[in-house]
Amino acid sequence: MPRPRPPKAADDLWFRLATRVRAGRYWLRERGREAWRWLRHAAEGAAYWWSKRSSGTRIQIVAVAGIVALYLVVKFLPVPGIPCEVSAAKECAPSNDTIAYVPRDAALYAHVTVNSSSHQWELARDLRGTLPNFVALLQSDTTALAAPGGHPVDLSQVLPWAKDDLALLGVPGPKRTNSEAYIVGVGDQARASRFLAGLVPGGKKKHATVGGVGLTVYADGFATARPGDQLLFGNVAAVRAGLQAKAGASPRLEDGPQGDALEALPDVRLAEIYLSRAGVQRFLVGRQGTATQLNTFVDYGATQGMAASLRIHDDGIEVNLASELDPKLVKASPTVFAALPRFDPGLADEASGDALGYVGVGDLGPALTRALATAGRGAQGLVGSLQALGRRLKQQAGVNPLQDLLPALGGQAALVAEPTGGVPYASLIVEGVDEKKATAALASLQRPLLRSVATRGGPQVPSFQSTDVDGVTVHSVRISPSVNLSYAVFDGKLVVSTQPQGVAQVRSSGDSLAGTSGWEDATSHLPDHVSALVFLNLKEVLGLAQRAGLAENPLYASISEDITHVRSLGLAVTGSDEELRSKLFLAIHD
To which H or E segment does residue 50 belong? Predict the structure, then answer.
């Protein structure tokens, strides 16, 4: 008989591997059988033990187990109706002892929690460690607070002796002015007295009693009062109004409809500010910069009062804004948000994972059609711009194609900014489109658009070109070296982009914005159903700005270290003809 051939090296390795696999299977099978036998014996033992217990003992055991389970649920899950003092999953709202001093006709009320034992104060302290330069810059702008009665107040001299609350109250004064006063909780009476001694003017002073509290009035109208652990100082009219409200001699803001904007804010907050309609006209209307942008979320012309709050989270900063509207005033010039229905944003899947920004709205076409139908000729904002565009198109083409295009855009829409190696491009994506009507309306818009471009004096009259992008016909016209305006209608969608890449992006199946951590971090704190949603990929946006030379800006340089901790920003807006609600979340990481 021939001798068996010894296995080759590869055969030997495979033989040893197969032997070990079989041995592992045998071992797992035996261990599994042993575990099953143990579980079976344990179950039989438990059943035998349970069968020997009396009915009373069984009831007691079940009751104890139920109580333990109920305790765990109440303690560690955010069950509605369970007080925050009991539930570890809920954060208690900081106390506020200053709101009781605010009269119903107050034009201004600003409050910040300085309670060192509150969780919000602890989070704010941690935030200062994460964003030290930004917080220092903010403090430098707020160190010199309002000066009621001509007496400037330095915040750094107040905080060392303040306890729990620091608030500013403004009430209507003569000749459409405001009288202002501070309300501060006193934690160190001696230091508060020294601060007050350096603040009050010399000369004669008068004493009076308001609501059972002593009031000291100085010659220039400056006044002070010390009800319990509170200190009021400022203009005598504001101090007196605060004492009267506290004593119940005049209606309070928190007890009437004027305080609805404050009631709409979340209970947990580090700071809040309230402005009545008169306060909005006084402090915001006509101001430049941020005040101009804020009008979009307040509607200065129709608001009856607005309030905003600041809340700190472990992973970011939350800002809420509420504006109560007068329906009659809204009808005169409807806001965009009042016309937009609420929807569940779903087009983030169409944007790339590197998208710079995203703005989503619901039922864009029908909503704008309704807004145009109800708005007066002098409407402002987006509605006014569309009115002007429609008139211009009718002059140039004899018809207004928007009348046919807007109703064809039946679903939600998103405006997306996408990065490139050079200039970013922007795309408008609309779903739920009537493809036939939209295609016809866009075709009728081509001639007015080309005529508008030709008037710019270019060397050649441009024309639309048709190309194929991933099986879709894309119509494009070169507007400038960086803008190749393109549009395509397909799969019930309309895509209009400054580059044909915008259509290709929607057609692609790669990573999407909705799957990124930046999107999740910024939008997980926002409502599910909104009238509009805004997202900014701040990490990418700030990187782009830095490459564009922003690093040379002194302001940027002062907070450049902080910017590395900023990830993304989300903003949700809901609106109607009675209210506007906005919630912003800035995602921050250590």
Answer: helix 9-51
